[in-house]
Specification:
The complex is a heterotrimer of chains A (213), B (209) and C (579). By secondary structure, chain A is mostly helical. Chain A has 7 helices and 5 strands; from the N terminus they run αααβαβαβαββα. In chain A, α2 runs antiparallel to α6 and α3 crosses α6. The longest helix of chain A is centred in the N-terminal third of the chain and has 21 residues. In chain A, 48% of the residues are buried. In chain B, a hairpin with a 6-residue loop joins β3 and β4. The model of chain B has no long low-confidence stretch (mean pLDDT 86). The chains are: A mainly alpha (213), B alpha+beta (209), C alpha+beta (579). Chains in contact: A-B, A-C, B-C.
């Protein structure tokens, strides 16, 4: 380390020269993305109404560059999961997520989308969107007030600011795999579970047995 | 005349558009003060309605409820005295059952003591209904006003434990002055009654003795 | 009134000496009908006794007695109280005849009873699941059916106190996604049913179109900007004309009733907020009315509380109707401007709710025998500001802005027509029913709370189309303002709750059906108590759900773009439709 600073003035070491360009580029790139994150017009439940209120004149999230809500996933950058995620709806949500172009972000708005919320115990409720999609920001509240949602969106912008072109997942060499769409079986089925399915089923039977005994 | 309705309707939008400027000019610099925010939420507002969060915030009314917190009183030497007695009423009344209370025991006698060993609220389940605060007999659990709680990772942050839930009584006084006063008065009255009853009993005992 | 019911009782007795008997369990009312006599009995009620409006159909699982019971509530469309009749069937093989032929409004409700309780209705034209998907294992509302996160039969759970060690339910469950599969289930061999059955019913319908067109099946939703959430419609189109349309729902089925049966009575109040989340005060109102009926004299509501209840319910109605008008215009393509104007008024009303009840949307304000708390200082002034100045002015402005707009009229007039006879037959309620020329408003027809003290008109229009539904909503806002002005002027001082608020109440055994005129229409709560701290059965008669029964009827023959507008004019909220 010392020899870098000992040399005349502030000379940038060769291995870091690219990075300086990239940090400046990052700044511009992130600034652009930060103020043009269009949310998807996609409401699930109660929180969707607060989301509409946030888009309306009193709170107006256009001030944050979320200028317009797009009903089509192809034109959206942010998916606001606004409400209870049910098992019947989850295949559609995953499909919508897969259709969104990168860079894409998921915000779990409210208790239900974060972790199931008050309806968690229900038979048709998924306990949290993050069981299927990578969630970036969680906003607690039931429902979060529009200001709480705005705070969450500001957190999202903060997150965008800290991303770097070098590490973001959409510029990596490997293709991004699509998230497998869950299937509606006798109960919700996640294709990712198939390999361990029989093991788990056997385990479940083992767990269930001592209770019966 | 065909089109009259449309023209009439467009007149309304035009009026709305002009009103924003009229409001702005009339309010002048005051627009961006607390008074301005109040005006923008009043019956008279005609123009722009927007409250520019985060620079401006809508005032939270006293009854506003978000996630609950636990109250502690500060006693003389900086010690915290937690009001909660782990009676469990909040856990029993909670509709989605998001409150977990661990009662603590006296290490010597093994008998339960009032202060909870731990107190958890899973905010991913909490429905902000306020029933816990409504039925707490010790005014120990109160609904908070702080809604800026968004996090990046719910698994680390969203089960609030006792440390995270505790807030001083001054904070409570600050956010809910009216309720605080009512409860403090009720408690003082109860204590006074108790003291009076005790004094009476003692006096009776003394008279007998 | 009493004479009338007596006369009817006599009439029923003479007409049906066998097969129909009064329900004599204590706390219960109405008649027990044998399954074989059901259709005949219902037809007689409709045609001869004037009970032409079927309000609610629901099942109850009486597991200890090995019986299933189907409960019907019928009313007269001219007003008055309910006539309840029930059919008991064995729990092992619950089959009874369908009433769809007599009351088409029973369609969705019978399907729901099949879906959730496994009661089969013979002769139902479309006997499929409605809220869960085809292929789902079990009938969840049966008392012996347990979900993945099942902890205990009733709340509060023992794990919470005194030894409450926090855990996430998903960590305890072997599959972590709250799913349970049958023991012998093998995913490799599973073939999902999908929507095969649904699409099979949609193909190739005979029409008398003069133009030769190819029919196609179009799927709208559940992610569609104009379906008000996660609602889905599947339509068969000939050209642009809808020849058949089927609503598909359940995408927001949050198991309200199953959770409600585990909750204590008090815990259900905040859950009702989340039914019709645009009108939480009305939901509270209906539920507390039902439970207060069971509680009887134990829950007498003080005068001041009654007034505040009415005031809040009417503010809710206004907030809901402006929102409904805004979304209707949104659906028509007037993107966002009418919505913004509507939301502005709604925000001001929400400010009042926030100040009084503590939350903008999930108010949780009503309690059995009163209210949660009195109005904080300053709120009454705000209410007066809105009711006497702001809202009348703004509603006139909205009227000026929209009502005469030629484009709006062209899009709305003559679209989605429902005749009065059809509206009654399909059990349509609220603005949909009243726009068809049936002046039926529960506040007038069967007054509850203190609505008989106020002077207001029942808004009614006679064309039964989308435009009339819009007009009825406008007029209802005006009438609500009238009620508000009277109520605010008469608002007395005093208590807001009789007795001390208690968190654990015991409700006498019996059944009760409480209904209110919510913004969407008649909202009913059917509660069966077995005397314990939890309701045995808790059913919601959701207006948005049952109004949808008439949707396909309204859409047939109209253009596909109109189907969106018609849906908007029914004004559904998915939280209530799917519960």
């Amino acid at each position: 380390m010392p020899e870098i600073f000992d040399s005349k003035g502030y000379e940038i070491p060769p291995e870091m020269q690219n990075n300086v360009a990239i940090t400046t580029l990052d700044k511009i790139y992130n600034w652009g993305r930060r103020y043009s994150a269009w949310p998807m017009m996609f409401g699930l439940a109660c929180c969707a109404i607060e989301m509409i209120c946030t888009a309306a004149s009193r709170f107006d999230f256009s001030r944050f560059g979320m200028e317009i809500m797009r009903p089509s996933p192809r034109q959206a950058d942010v998916m606001l999961v606004s409400g209870t995620v049910t098992k019947k709806m989850v295949p559609q949500i995953v499909r919508l997520y897969n259709q969104m172009p990168e860079p894409k972000y998921v915000v779990a708005m409210g208790a239900c989308a974060s972790g199931g919320g008050p309806f968690k115990e229900g038979y048709n409720v998924v306990s949290g969107m993050d069981k299927f999609l990578p969630v970036d920001v969680y906003i607690p509240g039931c429902p979060p007030t529009p200001q709480a949602l705005l705070f969450g969106l500001m957190k999202l912008q903060e997150m965008m600011d800290n991303q770097s072109l070098k590490t973001v997942r959409w510029y990596q060499k490997e293709d991004l795999p699509a998230i497998p769409v869950p299937i509606l079986g006798p109960d919700l089925l996640d294709p990712r579970d198939y390999p361990e399915f029989s093991d788990k089923l056997a385990q479940a039977a083992v767990i269930a047995e001592p209770e019966e005994a | 005349m065909y089109g009259k309705g449309i023209i009439k309707g467009l007149g309304v939008t035009l009026k709305h558009f002009l009103d924003t400027y009229i409001d702005d000019i009339r309010m002048g610099k005051k627009r961006y003060s607390d008074e301005g925010i109040e005006y923008r939420s009043s019956k008279d507002v005609r123009g722009l309605f927007t409250v520019q969060y985060p620079e401006e915030k809508l005032p939270t009314p006293e009854e506003f409820r978000f996630i609950p917190f636990l109250v502690y009183d500060e006693v003389e030497d900086g010690e915290r005295e937690i009001r909660c007695t782990s009676c469990g009423i909040c856990a029993k009344v909670c509709p989605p059952q998001c409150i977990w209370i661990e009662r603590s025991e006296d290490p010597k006698t093994g008998r339960p003591i009032p202060e909870p060993a731990n107190f958890y609220i899973d905010v991913d389940i909490c429905m902000n209904c306020g029933l816990c605060a409504e039925f707490c007999p010790f005014d120990a659990i109160i609904m908070d006003h702080d809604y800026e709680l968004a996090v990046y990772n719910r698994f680390e942050n969203n089960i609030y434990d006792k440390e995270k839930l505790l807030k001083p009584a001054e904070y409570y006084l600050d956010i809910r002055p009216l309720n605080y006063q009512i409860q403090a008065d009720a408690r003082a009255e109860k204590e006074a009654k108790k003291a009076a009853a005790k004094a009476k009993k003692e006096a009776a005992a003394a008279a007998k003795g | 009134m009493i004479d009338l019911t007596l006369a009817i009782a006599k009439e029923i007795e003479t007409r049906f000496p066998k097969g129909v008997a009064p329900d004599e369990r204590s706390g219960y009312e109405g008649y027990l009908v044998e399954a074989g006599k059901l259709v005949e009995f219902a037809t007689a009620l409709r045609d001869e006794l004037g009970y032409d409006f079927l309000s609610s159909v629901t099942g109850v699982d009486y597991m200890p007695e090995e019986k299933m019971e189907v409960v019907y509530h019928v009313y007269r469309s001219t007003g008055g109280g309910a006539l309840v009749f029930k059919v008991q069937v064995p729990r092992q093989n619950p089959v009874l005849p369908s009433l769809v032929e007599v009351f088409p409004g029973a369609d969705f409700q019978e399907r729901e009873a099949w879906d959730l309780l496994g009661i089969r209705f013979e002769g139902h034209p479309n006997h499929k699941r409605i809220l869960m998907w085809e292929g789902f294992e079990g009938h969840p509302l049966r008392k012996d059916w347990e979900e993945a996160y099942f902890e205990e039969e009733s709340k509060p759970f023992d794990a919470r106190w005194p030894g409450g060690d926090v855990y996430r339910a998903e960590d305890e469950n072997p599959f972590t996604k709250n799913v349970v599969y049958p023991q012998d289930f093998n995913p490799e061999t599973w073939i999902p049913d999908g929507d095969k059955a649904l699409y099979a019913g949609m193909k190739e319908i005979e029409t008398d179109e003069s133009l030769e067109t190819e029919q196609i099946v179009v799927n709208l939703g559940p992610q569609h900007p104009s379906t008000h959430g996660v609602f889905r419609m599947v339509a068969t189109l000939a050209g642009e004309t809808v020849v058949k349309l089927e609503p598909v729902m359940g995408y927001l089925h949050r198991n309200h009733e199953k959770i409600g049966e585990r909750n204590t009575y008090l815990m259900n109040i905040p859950f009702t907020d989340r039914l019709d989340y645009l009108a939480s005060m009305s939901n509270n109102f209906g539920y507390v009315l039902a439970v207060e009926k069971l509680l009887g004299k134990k829950a007498v509501v003080p005068e001041r509380a009654e007034y505040i209840r009415v005031i809040m319910a009417e503010f809710t109605r206004i907030a809901n109707h402006v929102f409904a008008i805004g979304t209707l215009l949104n659906d028509m393509g007037a993107y966002f401007t009418p919505m913004l104007y509507a939301l502005q008024e709604r925000e001001l009303i929400l400010d009042i709710f926030e100040a009084a009840a503590g939350s903008r949307m999930m108010c949780n304000y009503y309690r059995f025998g009163g209210l949660a708390r009195d109005l904080p200082p300053g709120v009454e002034g705000k209410m007066r500001d809105l009711a006497f100045e702001r809202l009348p002015r703004k509603i006139d402005e909205l009227d000026r802005y929209l009502t005469e707009n030629e484009v709006l009229r062209a899009r709305c007039e003559g679209v989605g027509v429902l005749t009065p006879e059809e509206a009654i037959a399909y059990s349509a309620v609220g603005p949909v029913l009243r726009a068809s020329g049936v002046p039926y408003d529960v506040r007038r027809a069967d007054p509850y709370s203190i609505y008989d003290r106020f002077d207001f008109d029942v808004a009614v229009a006679y064309h039964g189309d989308v435009y009339d539904r819009y007009l009825v909503r406008m007029e209802e806002i005006r009438q609500s303002i009238r009620i508000l002005q009277q109520a605010l002027d008469d608002l007395p001082e005093g208590e807001i709750m009789t007795g001390k608020p208690r968190y654990s109440i015991r409700v006498p055994a019996g059944e009760a059906y409480g209904r209110v005129e919510g913004p969407k229409g008649e909202l009913g709560f059917y509660v069966v108590s077995d005397g314990s701290a939890n309701p045995w059965r808790y059913h919601v008669r959701a207006p948005s759900f049952i109004n949808l029964t008439a949707l396909s009827k309204m859409c047939e023959g109209d253009k596909v773009a109109d189907a969106i507008v018609i849906l908007g004019s029914i004004d559904i909220v998915l939280g209530e439709t799917d519960r």
